[in-house]
Design brief:
There is one protein chain. It contains 5 helices and 9 strands. By secondary structure, the chain is an alpha/beta fold. The strands form 2 sheets. It has a 7-stranded mixed β-sheet, with helices on both faces. A two-stranded antiparallel sheet has the order 1-2. α4 links the parallel β3 and β4.
């Protein structure tokens, strides 16, 4: 385990039975309260991808990491949001979550054909939201360089649903 992964693990707060019974929620708010740790996380998430044109952050915690990563890369930021949250014309994808279904949307002009895209979120669990975001980016003509996650719950095998490079700072087996 890297020093950064150790520090992330130490800062996380586990919340049992949230948002429903049997779920052990990984609360990142203690990490957000530590500016030096956030800087290290965002620096690491931005490293080694080569040129990136657009960083896409998934609603909502992906915004917290995606915007600073985009700034570090000199890239644009585009949000992938829940249905009905974006004010302009959108493309959408319906997908299944661990406990229900949802729709994810992006603006039709969020990126242009051929742009290299990095997708960022705080957590990779079953991979439903990440796979939906991948589908949206490809629908808009983007080339996905990869995914960057703060935490990966490896036992849920979400990475198997993503046919692009996946990097996570902390992997929970």
């Amino acid at each position: 385990m890297t020093d950064l992964a150790h520090d992330v693990k130490e800062a996380l707060r586990d919340v049992p039975d949230f948002p429903r019974d049997g779920v052990l929620f990984k609360d990142i708010t203690p990490i957000l309260a530590q500016p030096a740790l956030m800087k290290r996380i965002c620096d690491t998430m931005a490293e080694g991808w080569g040129p990136i044109d657009v960083v896409v952050g998934m609603e909502s915690r992906g915004f917290l990491f995606g915007v600073p990563v985009a700034e570090r890369l000199g890239a644009a930021f585009a949000p992938a949001r829940k249905a009905g949250k974006l004010p302009h014309a959108t493309v959408s994808v319906d997908f299944e979550l661990e406990y229900g279904s949802a729709t994810l949307e992006m603006h039709v002009d969020a990126l242009t054909k051929g742009q290299r895209v990095l997708i960022i979120d705080d957590l990779l669990a079953t991979g439903g939201t990440a796979a939906a975001t991948l589908a949206l980016v490809r629908q808009l003509g983007g080339e996905v360089a990869g995914f960057g996650f703060l935490i990966e719950l490896g036992f849920l095998e979400g990475r198997a649903r993503l046919d692009a490079e996946v990097r996570s700072i902390l992997s929970v087996p």
